[in-house]
Every structure is written in structure tokens, then in C-alpha cells.
Design brief:
Elements (H helix, E strand, L loop, with lengths): L47 E3 L5 E3 L6 E7 L4 H19 L4 E7 L4 H10 L4 H13 L1 H9 L3 H9 L5 H9 L1 H6 L5 H8 L2 H16 L8 E4 L2 E2 L6 H12 L1
Parallel strand pairs: 3-4
Antiparallel strand pairs: 1-2, 2-4, 3-5, 5-6
């Protein structure tokens, strides 16, 4: 399954298509482990790095328990998980060094691609904060895209392929959302037109489908196994507790 994300014209209706998770395989139990010290003067939640798979990892890269989250920035279920889980996940689990948390973008529509390009544009250190803020304000910044007219969609679709995500972000005001969070306009434009970054996002989505059997968002992988639980913090937290002992 592959979506031509560069055909950014038909975007308004796609926002409502954020899918929920489906059944998957049961995660294997993990051995009990102790806390691991973070680099001097920091805690593990301040250690954020880019992974070989193209995701963003918060925490101890050598943590014995590794949580991967495939998520879409326009997905309401991902928003709800972030609102319920982000602070507790970070403070109670990642800081100890016993769990790492990796965010992988799984775009469902062109708006997701544009938002991911902007949320990651300032480098790994700010990604988790910007993703969390994106979810907190999701209802507000998604609304303009739902109101795009057919004429506006046609204008975006008529743009050169290399300019379509830039045009989409501007017409929906998404560039302004990240600008007030420290992203300069010139840098935003560079990221929105960066073919290598766009291809990397699409490749990560394809990897999720082919290798991790992602069928909806959010999907969680714990120590290499897909979590067979509803994608809510109430359901996921006990699985994490069992993994870290």
C-alpha cells in the first residue's frame, strides 16, 4: 500500500481518516532491570537522538526496554494517547534509563507529512516537545485544512511537486503554528521543500507497513514485538511495567 503524498490537493477529507489500531502479536516478557545513570548533569529524558530507522529516540539508547510508537500528527487517537501518557511516560519510565521511547512518523495524509517536516525541522532535541504541543493544539491547527475550498486544493495541486507541501502549510497556517514555537520562516521553507526529508518520511511509513505490520495509529512496538492491546495509556502502561520489571 502506498500513497502519493505529493498529490497534496485532496487533503481536506483525509484528515478525518486517522485510523485506530488493530489486533497484533503478543509482546514477550522481559527480564527485570535496574536504573541506569544518565550522563552527568542530565536525566535520560534530555537525551534525544536520531535512530538508524529515521525515528527520534528519547532516553537511554541502551535501555533494556525499548518502546517504539508509530504515530500520525493528525490522528485523534495519537493525540489522546499523548495527552494521557506523555508526561508519565517521560517522568516515570524514560528518566530512569530503563525504557527508551522512539517516535516514528506514520503519515496518513499530506498534512501529516507537512507537520512532520516542520516538527522535526529544528533537530532532534526539540522533536518530542513540538510533537506534544502539536497534539495539545491539534483541534485548532487541523481545522483550517478541513475548511479548504476546492479552489484552494486545486491551486496546491497545480503547484510544482517540490512546492506542494510548502503551499499546503502556508494555506493552512501550519508554518505560522511552528514559527511562534521558534522555527524561522526561511528554515521552515527549506524543510518543506527538502526532497530527502520527504522521502525519508515516506520510507519510514513504508517500513512500518512492511516490517512492523502497522495497520493504524498509534501502533506500539515493545522490544521488537507489536503490542496486542488497545492503543491507550491505560492498556499500554501495564505492558511497559511488565517489561521493565
Amino acid at each position: 500500500m502506498r500513497i502519493d503524498f505529493r498529490m497534496a490537493a485532496a487533503v481536506a477529507g483525509l484528515v478525518a481518516l486517522a485510523a485506530c489500531n488493530k489486533k497484533a502479536e503478543e509482546p514477550a516478557p522481559q527480564a527485570k532491570t535496574g536504573a541506569v545513570e544518565a550522563p552527568a548533569g542530565t536525566d535520560w529524558s534530555e537525551t534525544i537522538s536520531l535512530t538508524p530507522e529515521g525515528g527520534y529516540l528519547m532516553g537511554n539508547p541502551g535501555a533494556p526496554a525499548k518502546l517504539v510508537e508509530y504515530a500520525s500528527l493528525t490522528c485523534p487517537h495519537c493525540r489522546d494517547f499523548s495527552r494521557d501518557a506523555a508526561v508519565t511516560l517521560r517522568d516515570n519510565y524514560v528518566k530512569s534509563g530503563k525504557l527508551s521511547w522512539e517516535f516514528r512518523s506514520f503519515p496518513l495524509n499530506p498534512i501529516d507529512v507537512a507537520a512532520t517536516l516542520l516538527a522535526t525541522c529544528q533537530g532532534p532535541a526539540l522533536v518530542f516537545n513540538l510533537v506534544e504541543q502539536s497534539y495539545v493544539e491539534q483541534d485548532k491547527w487541523v481545522l483550517p485544512f478541513q475548511k479548504l475550498t476546492k479552489e484552494q486544493q486545486a491551486q496546491i495541486g497545480a503547484m510544482p511537486e517540490s512546492q506542494q507541501f510548502l503551499g499546503l502549510a502556508k494555506v493552512g497556517g501550519l508554518d505560522g503554528f511552528y514559527r511562534v514555537r521558534g522555527l524561522p520562516a526561511a528554515k521552515a521553507e527549506a524543510c518543506l521543500t527538502d526532497k530527502a526529508k520527504i522521502d525519508a518520511i515516506v520510507a519510514m511509513r513504508d517500513r512500518g507497513i512492511k516490517e512492523d505490520k502497522v495497520e493504524g495509529t498509534p501502533t506500539f512496538i515493545l522490544n521488537g514485538e507489536k503490542v496486542d492491546e488497545p492503543p491507550t495509556w491505560t492498556a499500554i502502561e501495564p505492558v511497559i511495567r511488565k517489561a521493565i520489571g
